[in-house]
Amino acid sequence: MNPIPKQVWEILIPIVGNRMLELGNKKNGKGTYKEYLESIGVEHTSIDWNGQDGALPLDLRKPILLDPFDMVTNFGTTEHVSEQEPAWRNIHNLLKVDGVYVGVTPLPGDWPGHGDHYPAMEFYKEFAKNGYEIEKLEVISVSPKRLIATRFRKTEEKDFVMPDEKLISAI
């Protein structure tokens, strides 16, 4: 059974390529996203500082030296990382050209106390200037709260420039 909520699944598909990196190790009562994605043939790697549920014990605040992936997903992980610049640099560096980044992060103001860093819509528009085409950038509801849903295709390899961190609300 697919543990990925319908609203998130609709942003994730179509899956691009075969190699996917998940930031964090998302799970719910139906299982981990990793288990499900592997069951449908995706070569899935998850990273989380805690190393639980099959995740590699890596810290997004430090450079992650893995071969680039076809897809990188961020299902509510970056808001928990104390240093934002290295986390977003890792996302950029770990994604192949023509690969796809998919993320859902809390809408600023909707999730008080959930994390520490909430990128605004403008943050993502600035992030896209690092060589990405925006395929989806919208607010979705996971009642009673909302998330910013993103799907970006990396169209060219550029040196990473961090968007202004003022575009990330710190709670």
Taken as a percent bin, the fraction of beta residues is 35-45%
In spatial order, strands of the major sheet run: 4-1-5-6-9-8
Radius of gyration equals: 15 Å
Uncertain residue ranges: none
Q: CATH top level?
A: Alpha Beta
- For the report, how would you describe the main beta sheet? 6 strands, mixed
Oligomeric state of the chains present here? single chain
The fold-level CATH name is: Rossmann fold
Give the number of domains.
1
The proportion of residues forming helix, as a percent range, comes to 10-25%
Number of strands: 10
- What is the name of the CATH architecture? 3-Layer(aba) Sandwich
Structural class: alpha/beta
Distance between the termini: 35 Å
Mean pLDDT, as a whole number?
Answer: 94
Helix count, per DSSP? 4
Following the backbone from N to C, one meets helices and strands in this order, namely HEEEHEEHEEHEEE
Inertia-based shape: globular
Tell me the name of the CATH homologous superfamily.
Answer: Vaccinia Virus protein VP39
Q: Can you give a write-up of this model?
A:
The chain is of the alpha/beta class and 171 residues long. The chain has one domain: Vaccinia Virus protein VP39 (Rossmann fold), CATH 3.40.50.150. It is 18% helix and 35% strand. It is built from 4 helices and 10 strands, in the order αβββαββαββαβββ. It has helices at 6-12, 33-39, 84-93, 121-127, and strands at 19-23, 27-28, 31-32, 43-47, 69-75, 95-106, 117-119, 132-142, 145-154, 168-170. The strands form 3 sheets. Strands 4-1-5-6-9-8 form a 6-stranded mixed β-sheet, sandwiched between helices. The protein has a two-stranded antiparallel sheet with strand order 2-3. β2 and β3 form a beta hairpin. The radius of gyration is 15 Å and the shape is globular. The model has no long low-confidence stretch (mean pLDDT 94).
